[in-house]
Amino acid sequence: MLENCILLSLFAKENLNRMSEQQLNLYDRLINEPSNDWDIYYWATEAKPAPAEFENDVMAMLREFAKNKKREQRLRQPDLEYLFEPPR
């Protein structure tokens, strides 16, 4: 689903390098366990409540990111070069 690809890849670019191991495990679970991509999108945009097992600090971070308070244009996934850059 394109919406999730854009949302999750930009979220990952901005946040993965500063997440703890526990947060990384929660994020991995979030992107791999739900069988319906629309569920992740609805939870992130607060259109539907997330199940208790996904209510955690990573979901809170994703929800805050989805609000796009800086009004950034988010039209495509980031290039993957950021994966090879040193942490900031």
TrEMBL record:
Q: Major place of localization?
A: mitochondrion
Which SUPFAM superfamilies does its entry note?
YgfY-like
* A single Gene Ontology CC term: mitochondrial matrix
Q: Which UniProt keywords apply?
A: Chaperone, Mitochondrion
Q: Which InterPro entries match?
A: SDH (IPR005631), SDH_sf (IPR036714)
Domain of life where this protein originates: Eukaryota
Q: Name one GO biological process term.
A: negative regulation of canonical Wnt signaling pathway
Q: Which Gene3D superfamilies match?
A: Flavinator of succinate dehydrogenase
Q: Which locations, inside or outside the cell, does it occupy?
A: Mitochondrion matrix
Provide the protein name: SDHF2 factor
Origin organism is Rynchops niger (Black skimmer)
**Gene name tied to this protein:** Sdhaf2
